[in-house]
Amino acid sequence: MTFQSPWALLGLLVVPVVVLVLVARERQRARVAQRFASAPLLAGIAPRPPRARRLIPLGLLLLALTAMVVGVARPEATLTTEREEATVVLAIDVSRSMEAADVEPSRLVAARAAASTFVAQLPERFRVAVVAIGTRPVVASPPTENREITDDALANLRPSEGTALGDGIMLAARLGQDERAEDGTTPPTAILVISDGASDGGENEPAAAAARAKRLGIPVHAILVGGLDGTIEVELEGGYTQVVQVPADPETLREVTRIAGGDLYTALDDPQLVQVYEELGSRLGEREERREVTDLFAGGAAVFLLAGGALSALFFRRIA
User: Fold this and answer.
1) Which residues contact 8 (CB under 8 A, 6 or more apart)?
2) Which of 53-67, 204-218, 233-247 has the lowest mean pLDDT?
3) Are the C-beta atoms of 97 and 122 separated by less than 8 Å?
4) What kind of fold does domain 84-284 have according to CATH?
């Protein structure tokens, strides 16, 4: 424990002085009483209370004085507290294949709804970012504790071309690494990819991006959206349309999660998704911080003072 005003501790010298004064006063009272009455007569007329009764109120009052002086010195203690900060990056696939309606009303709408439900269950202090993965990944919203910003970003996701899945994971990992907690450290990060799994384009292969996240200590979890019978309509020249099959590709996401130490979920409402933020919570750990504890000593002084005064009034019908 340290003190912001250590010079105030000199006031503790008052405590032994008060003890000496009280002892001297008690001896003087005894001598004066003995001048006017014999010991047997004095004991019968004014019996002395038990020693404990006399010392307990006095001790409490002296403790109150000590706590008051220490409080004036503004003590600080180093306390160990749990970290509450973490970053979750939602990497949402917005490729054309996410328009398939094998998951009603479409894969993308279902993915947005699943992401919103997941975010609503996160602790308030967790920061959430949204990355849209199309031909190239785009930060739809940076890491923030403001859930309205996150929900707006999810609601504004629109279909795009391509699926640069590896680049999206790399961008998500970088967002987490750029975050700083109150103590200047990088808070724990997790990435949740919501995709139909098919990767198309980008500079980084999904496996390489997952390996990079693994080295940074960032697990990559994924939710597979869609099945094998998904189709989309593609407009052709001349006003024609073509129905194109876009089956989901669980193998890509399975490899990504295996490499990065995450989990693959095949249901949008899988209750086991809670493991994502529980796993984050297990990595939060503890941190040490200095806090002023003057209030504790001030409160203790008040309690000792009231207790000592109450006992003194009860035993001797007087406060002091």
Assistant:
1) 69, 72, 73, 74
2) 53-67
3) no
4) Rossmann fold (3.40.50)
